[in-house]
Amino acid sequence: QLGLKTKRLGWNVYYEESVPSTQKIAHKLAHDGAEEGTLVIAEEQTAGRGRLDRSWHSPKGTGIWMSLILRPAIPPQQAPQLTLLAAVAVSQGIQEVTGLVPDIKWPNDILLNGKKAVGILTELQADPDQVHAVIVGIGINVNQTREHFPSELASTATSLALEAGKPVNRAQLVQMILSKFETLYDQYLQHGFSPIKLLWEGYAVTIGKEVVARTLSGTVSGVALGITDTGTLKLRTKDGDIHYIYSADIEIKK
Ligand code: BTN
Protein backbone atom coordinates (compact mmCIF):
# COMPACT_ATOMS: atom_id res chain seq x y z
CA GLN A 1 0.00 0.00 0.00
CA LEU A 2 3.04 2.25 0.18
CA GLY A 3 3.72 1.96 -3.57
CA LEU A 4 7.48 1.84 -3.07
CA LYS A 5 9.90 2.31 -5.93
CA THR A 6 12.98 1.19 -4.07
CA LYS A 7 14.88 -2.00 -4.89
CA ARG A 8 15.75 -3.20 -1.42
CA LEU A 9 14.64 -0.81 1.28
CA GLY A 10 11.08 -1.28 2.42
CA TRP A 11 10.36 -4.43 0.44
CA ASN A 12 9.54 -6.28 3.57
CA VAL A 13 7.03 -4.06 5.37
CA TYR A 14 5.32 -4.60 8.69
CA TYR A 15 2.50 -2.10 8.77
CA GLU A 16 0.71 -1.79 12.12
CA GLU A 17 -2.24 0.22 13.41
CA SER A 18 -0.96 0.66 16.94
CA VAL A 19 2.22 -0.59 18.60
CA PRO A 20 4.19 0.40 21.71
CA SER A 21 7.25 1.26 19.57
CA THR A 22 8.30 0.34 16.00
CA GLN A 23 11.87 0.42 17.27
CA LYS A 24 11.21 -2.37 19.71
CA ILE A 25 9.57 -4.53 17.03
CA ALA A 26 12.42 -3.89 14.57
CA HIS A 27 14.95 -4.94 17.23
CA LYS A 28 13.12 -8.22 17.72
CA LEU A 29 12.83 -8.83 13.95
CA ALA A 30 16.52 -8.02 13.42
CA HIS A 31 17.48 -10.34 16.22
CA ASP A 32 15.42 -13.10 14.58
CA GLY A 33 17.28 -12.60 11.28
CA ALA A 34 15.09 -10.14 9.32
CA GLU A 35 16.78 -9.12 6.09
CA GLU A 36 18.24 -5.72 5.27
CA GLY A 37 15.59 -3.23 4.22
CA THR A 38 12.87 -4.59 6.49
CA LEU A 39 10.63 -1.71 7.56
CA VAL A 40 8.27 -1.43 10.51
CA ILE A 41 5.78 1.42 10.28
CA ALA A 42 2.80 2.28 12.48
CA GLU A 43 -0.12 4.69 12.59
CA GLU A 44 0.34 5.17 16.30
CA GLN A 45 2.92 4.42 18.98
CA THR A 46 1.80 4.19 22.57
CA ALA A 47 5.33 4.11 23.98
CA GLY A 48 7.49 5.83 21.34
CA ARG A 49 11.08 6.26 22.45
CA GLY A 50 13.49 9.12 21.79
CA ARG A 51 17.18 9.60 22.43
CA LEU A 52 18.50 9.74 25.97
CA ASP A 53 15.58 7.70 27.31
CA ARG A 54 13.04 10.34 26.44
CA SER A 55 9.57 9.49 25.20
CA TRP A 56 8.43 10.37 21.68
CA HIS A 57 4.91 11.64 21.23
CA SER A 58 3.36 9.64 18.33
CA PRO A 59 -0.38 10.34 17.98
CA LYS A 60 -2.53 8.27 15.64
CA GLY A 61 -2.60 9.00 11.92
CA THR A 62 -0.63 12.23 12.11
CA GLY A 63 3.01 11.38 11.63
CA ILE A 64 5.42 8.87 10.17
CA TRP A 65 6.65 6.50 12.83
CA MET A 66 9.00 3.94 11.31
CA SER A 67 12.08 1.80 11.92
CA LEU A 68 14.34 0.48 9.18
CA ILE A 69 16.70 -2.48 9.52
CA LEU A 70 20.11 -2.21 7.80
CA ARG A 71 22.96 -4.70 7.77
CA PRO A 72 26.07 -2.85 6.58
CA ALA A 73 29.44 -4.58 6.97
CA ILE A 74 31.01 -1.86 9.13
CA PRO A 75 32.61 -1.70 12.58
CA PRO A 76 30.33 -0.24 15.29
CA GLN A 77 32.44 2.96 15.50
CA GLN A 78 31.20 3.93 12.04
CA ALA A 79 27.51 3.55 12.84
CA PRO A 80 26.98 7.27 13.67
CA GLN A 81 27.58 7.91 9.97
CA LEU A 82 24.29 6.17 9.27
CA THR A 83 22.46 8.54 11.59
CA LEU A 84 23.76 11.43 9.52
CA LEU A 85 22.91 9.59 6.31
CA ALA A 86 19.36 9.10 7.58
CA ALA A 87 19.08 12.80 8.40
CA VAL A 88 20.14 13.70 4.85
CA ALA A 89 17.67 11.20 3.32
CA VAL A 90 14.78 12.57 5.38
CA SER A 91 15.77 16.18 4.63
CA GLN A 92 15.95 15.51 0.90
CA GLY A 93 12.58 13.73 1.02
CA ILE A 94 10.92 16.58 2.90
CA GLN A 95 12.40 19.15 0.55
CA GLU A 96 11.27 17.27 -2.54
CA VAL A 97 7.70 16.62 -1.35
CA THR A 98 6.94 19.89 0.48
CA GLY A 99 9.42 22.45 -0.87
CA LEU A 100 10.41 23.26 2.71
CA VAL A 101 14.16 23.49 3.31
CA PRO A 102 15.06 21.67 6.52
CA ASP A 103 17.99 22.38 8.82
CA ILE A 104 19.89 19.56 10.47
CA LYS A 105 21.06 20.11 14.02
CA TRP A 106 23.86 17.71 14.87
CA PRO A 107 23.58 14.83 15.23
CA ASN A 108 20.12 14.18 13.91
CA ASP A 109 17.37 16.61 14.73
CA ILE A 110 15.64 18.09 11.72
CA LEU A 111 14.32 21.59 12.27
CA LEU A 112 11.95 23.80 10.36
CA ASN A 113 12.08 27.46 11.31
CA GLY A 114 14.07 26.50 14.40
CA LYS A 115 11.53 23.98 15.69
CA LYS A 116 11.94 20.22 15.71
CA ALA A 117 9.93 18.31 13.12
CA VAL A 118 11.89 15.05 12.97
CA GLY A 119 13.82 12.88 15.40
CA ILE A 120 16.13 10.02 14.49
CA LEU A 121 17.23 7.25 16.81
CA THR A 122 19.94 4.89 15.56
CA GLU A 123 20.55 1.75 17.58
CA LEU A 124 22.88 -1.21 17.04
CA GLN A 125 23.08 -4.91 17.41
CA ALA A 126 26.82 -5.47 17.28
CA ASP A 127 29.95 -7.22 18.46
CA PRO A 128 32.97 -5.06 19.34
CA ASP A 129 34.29 -5.38 15.78
CA GLN A 130 31.24 -6.00 13.61
CA VAL A 131 27.73 -4.60 13.24
CA HIS A 132 24.96 -7.20 12.89
CA ALA A 133 22.10 -4.78 12.44
CA VAL A 134 21.47 -1.06 12.57
CA ILE A 135 17.95 -0.06 13.52
CA VAL A 136 17.21 3.42 12.22
CA GLY A 137 14.13 4.84 13.94
CA ILE A 138 12.59 7.88 12.26
CA GLY A 139 9.80 9.97 13.74
CA ILE A 140 8.34 12.72 11.54
CA ASN A 141 5.67 15.16 12.66
CA VAL A 142 3.69 15.42 9.44
CA ASN A 143 0.09 16.51 9.83
CA GLN A 144 -0.18 17.55 13.46
CA THR A 145 -2.05 20.76 14.19
CA ARG A 146 -1.04 22.93 17.15
CA GLU A 147 -3.63 21.16 19.31
CA HIS A 148 -1.83 17.83 18.85
CA PHE A 149 1.27 19.01 20.69
CA PRO A 150 1.28 18.81 24.47
CA SER A 151 1.98 22.20 26.07
CA GLU A 152 5.58 21.32 26.99
CA LEU A 153 6.35 20.82 23.27
CA ALA A 154 4.41 23.82 21.96
CA SER A 155 7.39 26.17 21.70
CA THR A 156 9.97 23.63 20.48
CA ALA A 157 8.12 21.24 18.13
CA THR A 158 6.38 21.67 14.81
CA SER A 159 4.96 19.62 11.95
CA LEU A 160 5.46 19.73 8.19
CA ALA A 161 1.80 20.72 7.69
CA LEU A 162 2.10 23.62 10.13
CA GLU A 163 5.16 24.92 8.32
CA ALA A 164 3.88 24.25 4.78
CA GLY A 165 0.41 25.60 5.56
CA LYS A 166 -1.25 22.52 4.09
CA PRO A 167 -1.54 18.77 4.75
CA VAL A 168 1.23 16.54 3.44
CA ASN A 169 0.68 13.08 1.91
CA ARG A 170 2.37 10.64 4.25
CA ALA A 171 2.62 7.69 1.84
CA GLN A 172 4.26 9.87 -0.80
CA LEU A 173 6.74 11.16 1.77
CA VAL A 174 7.65 7.65 2.97
CA GLN A 175 8.26 6.57 -0.64
CA MET A 176 10.42 9.59 -1.34
CA ILE A 177 12.47 9.20 1.84
CA LEU A 178 13.12 5.50 1.20
CA SER A 179 14.12 6.20 -2.36
CA LYS A 180 16.56 8.95 -1.27
CA PHE A 181 17.78 6.67 1.52
CA GLU A 182 18.51 3.83 -0.91
CA THR A 183 20.50 6.07 -3.26
CA LEU A 184 22.55 7.50 -0.39
CA TYR A 185 23.06 4.10 1.22
CA ASP A 186 24.33 2.59 -2.07
CA GLN A 187 26.71 5.56 -2.41
CA TYR A 188 27.85 5.04 1.17
CA LEU A 189 28.53 1.31 0.67
CA GLN A 190 30.47 2.01 -2.54
CA HIS A 191 32.32 5.21 -1.80
CA GLY A 192 32.27 5.59 1.97
CA PHE A 193 31.13 8.53 4.08
CA SER A 194 32.75 11.51 2.26
CA PRO A 195 29.95 12.17 -0.27
CA ILE A 196 27.32 11.87 2.49
CA LYS A 197 29.29 14.21 4.74
CA LEU A 198 29.24 16.92 2.06
CA LEU A 199 25.49 16.65 1.65
CA TRP A 200 25.00 16.67 5.41
CA GLU A 201 27.08 19.85 5.72
CA GLY A 202 24.78 21.48 3.17
CA TYR A 203 21.85 21.11 5.58
CA ALA A 204 23.73 21.64 8.84
CA VAL A 205 22.95 24.64 11.00
CA THR A 206 25.32 23.71 13.80
CA ILE A 207 28.60 24.35 11.98
CA GLY A 208 30.31 27.67 12.61
CA LYS A 209 27.94 28.47 15.48
CA GLU A 210 28.56 29.03 19.15
CA VAL A 211 27.07 25.96 20.85
CA VAL A 212 26.65 24.35 24.24
CA ALA A 213 27.01 20.56 24.19
CA ARG A 214 25.51 18.70 27.15
CA THR A 215 27.00 15.23 27.32
CA LEU A 216 26.64 12.47 29.90
CA SER A 217 30.02 13.47 31.33
CA GLY A 218 29.47 17.24 31.43
CA THR A 219 28.93 20.41 29.46
CA VAL A 220 31.28 21.94 26.87
CA SER A 221 30.78 25.32 25.18
CA GLY A 222 32.53 26.47 22.07
CA VAL A 223 32.39 26.96 18.34
CA ALA A 224 31.27 23.93 16.31
CA LEU A 225 34.04 23.54 13.72
CA GLY A 226 32.62 20.63 11.77
CA ILE A 227 32.14 16.90 11.82
CA THR A 228 34.85 14.29 11.49
CA ASP A 229 34.92 11.33 9.12
CA THR A 230 33.20 9.16 11.70
CA GLY A 231 30.44 11.70 12.29
CA THR A 232 31.57 13.13 15.64
CA LEU A 233 31.32 16.86 16.28
CA LYS A 234 34.51 18.93 16.60
CA LEU A 235 34.30 21.88 19.00
CA ARG A 236 36.79 24.64 19.86
CA THR A 237 36.42 26.14 23.33
CA LYS A 238 37.31 29.78 23.97
CA ASP A 239 40.65 28.64 25.43
CA GLY A 240 41.39 27.12 22.05
CA ASP A 241 41.02 23.49 23.18
CA ILE A 242 39.57 21.06 20.68
CA HIS A 243 36.91 18.63 21.89
CA TYR A 244 35.37 15.73 19.99
CA ILE A 245 31.74 15.12 20.97
CA TYR A 246 30.31 11.65 20.34
CA SER A 247 26.85 12.15 21.72
CA ALA A 248 25.17 15.20 23.23
CA ASP A 249 22.28 17.55 23.29
CA ILE A 250 23.24 20.70 21.44
CA GLU A 251 21.99 24.17 22.18
CA ILE A 252 22.77 26.70 19.45
CA LYS A 253 23.55 30.15 20.83
CA LYS A 254 22.15 33.10 18.93
C1 BTN B 1 14.78 11.77 19.18
O1 BTN B 1 14.80 12.84 18.59
O2 BTN B 1 14.93 11.71 20.40
C2 BTN B 1 14.57 10.50 18.37
C3 BTN B 1 13.11 10.17 18.18
C4 BTN B 1 12.89 8.89 17.40
C5 BTN B 1 11.43 8.53 17.25
C6 BTN B 1 11.21 7.36 16.34
S1 BTN B 1 9.51 7.14 15.91
C7 BTN B 1 9.84 5.59 15.21
C8 BTN B 1 10.86 4.90 16.13
N1 BTN B 1 10.18 4.20 17.21
C9 BTN B 1 10.44 4.73 18.40
O3 BTN B 1 9.97 4.33 19.48
N2 BTN B 1 11.28 5.78 18.26
C10 BTN B 1 11.64 6.00 16.86
From TrEMBL:
Instruction: Give the catalysed reaction(s), semicolon-separated.
Output: biotin + L-lysyl-[protein] + ATP = N(6)-biotinyl-L-lysyl-[protein] + AMP + diphosphate + H(+)
Q: What taxonomic ancestry is recorded? A: Bacteria, Bacillati, Bacillota, Bacilli, Bacillales
Q: Name one GO biological process term.
A: protein lipoylation
| EC class | ligase
Q: What is this protein called?
A: Bifunctional ligase/repressor BirA
Instruction: Write out the function statement from the record.
Output: Acts both as a biotin--[acetyl-CoA-carboxylase] ligase and a repressor.
The entry sums up its family as follows: Belongs to the biotin--protein ligase family.
Q: Which residues of the full protein are shown?
A: 74 to 327 of 327
| A molecular function (GO) term | transferase activity
Species of the source: Thermolongibacillus altinsuensis
Q: In what residue span(s) does the BPL/LPL catalytic domain sit?
A: 1-189
Q: Might you give the EC number(s) for this enzyme?
A: 6.3.4.15
KW Protein biosynthesis (keyword) present:
no
Keyword vocabulary terms for this entry: ATP-binding, Biotin, DNA-binding, Ligase, Nucleotide-binding, Repressor, Transcription, Transcription regulation
* Residues that, per the record, bind biotin: 45, 49-51, 116
GO cellular component, as recorded: cytoplasm
